[in-house]
Task: structure prediction
Amino acid sequence: MYSIGELSKRTGVKIPTIRYYEEMGLIDAPERSEGNQRRYTKDGLSRLSFIQHSRDLGFSIEDIKDLLNLSQHPEKPCHDAHNIAVQHLADVQKRISKLKRLERELKRLSKCGAGNIADCAVIETLADHGLCETEH
Result:
């Protein structure tokens, strides 16, 4: 059995976040000691590690709920879990594409540096989106 502090140390998840995951139903409410201290099992540790790794990979809370539910049914085909991962990958690729456009635009803007604010490309472009070279 693990205290909430021990669970936090082992997983890297902050204590308030562990409590939040309990409230969200992502992890089961733990047993309580005689002193009313939360006591987590090895399964609780494993589940929290699963959640943390999923969060590290950027999965949403809703996706994690679905993945956790699927993990409780090992007899089911992997199709649904695969679809969740594929959709998440597509979302990540869209964000990367947008970030690359932002990077190009910011590189272009940051070439400015000489002169006065009155002639500053950064200020002018921020005031008029039409001066941007790409949609971002």
